[in-house]
Amino acid sequence: MNEIVALSGAEEDIFSHYCDQEEREPGRSDLLAADIAHLYGLLAQNPFMGSRHDSHSRKVILRRWSLGIYYTVEGNRNMIVAVQHLQQDPKKIRAILKARRPG
Q1: Which of 10, 15, 17 is nearest to 72 (CA)?
Q2: Domains in the chain and their CATH numbers?
């Protein structure tokens, strides 16, 4: 089973989405948090379940929220790099992933 590590940028993304949902409807953010926790559990058991996004990362989708979770598999760790809304320009998502890529 892989360890799930959310990098600081991904944590900021999640917090932003969490706040947006809570603002829309109190308590809705708890559903988002539960869905993310469930997906993290699946990723821990199946690190390669996400589709290949580019040469560096994989992507899984939280369909209810239209969110893409972008991650890399590094040994026994899944490094969550970004959590982005999928209705934005794909170029913006690529730029975010590139900026957060180590090295």
Answers
A1: 10
A2: 3-100 (3.30.2310.20)
